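Entry 14. Structure prediction run on the chain below.
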Amino acid sequence: MKYEKIGSSFIWEKRYLKRFIAGVVGYGLMFPVTIFLGKNTETVLAVQIIFALLPVIPFLLAMSAYIANFKTMDEMWKKIQTEALLMTAMITIAISFSLGMLQVVGVMKLFSVFFLFPFMMVIWLICFSYLMAKEKVL
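Output returned:
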C-alpha cells in the first residue's frame, strides 16, 4: 500500500486520496455551475431538480473514497477520525437544537439547512486538528 505521509504517520492511501481530491474538486466546480444553471434556466421542475442535485455526485465520490481509506487506517488514525466525527456530531446537534429552540420561541428567524454542511466541515477540521495536537501526531 502506498500512503501519503502526514507528520510521522500515514493517513491516506494514494489511490483513495486521488479519488477524494477528484470528488472535492468536482464538487467545487459543479457547485457554482449548478447555482448559475438553476437560477438562470427556466425549465421544468424535473430538470431543475437534476441541476440542483448534480454536486451530490462528486461529493459521494469523495465520501466513498474517505470510507474506503478509513478501512485501511491503523488504530490510532481510526480513533482520531472517529472521535473527530463524534465531536462534530455532538457540537452540531447542540447548536442545531439551540437554534431550533430560539426559532420556536420566536427570538430567531428561520435559517437554511444549506449552511449545515459547511458548518460541520469547519467543526470537523477544528476537532480533527485538536485531536491530532492532543495525540502529538504532527
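Residues 16 and 68 are 7 Å apart (CA to CA).
Filed with the rest of this week's runs.
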